[in-house]
Amino acid sequence: MAPIVFSGIQPTGQITLGNYLGALKHFVKAQHDAQSYYCIVDLHAITVPQDPKELKTRILDLAALYLAVGLDPQIATLFVQSDVKEHAELGWLLQCNVHMGELSRMTQYKEKAEGKDAVTVGLFTYPALMAADILLYQTNLVPVGEDQKQHIEITRDIALRFNARFGDTFTIPEGMITKEGARIMSLDDPTKKMSKSNPNPASRIELSDTPDEIRKKFSRAVTDSGRGVTFDPEKKAAVANLLTIYATITDRSIESIVNEYEGRGYGDFKKGLGEAVIAHLEPIQSRFQSLRQSGDVVDILQEGAHRARESAQKTIDLVKRNIGLGTYY
Ligand code: ATP
Ligand code: LTN
Question: For the whole model, what pTM was predicted?
Answer without folding.
Answer: 0.96
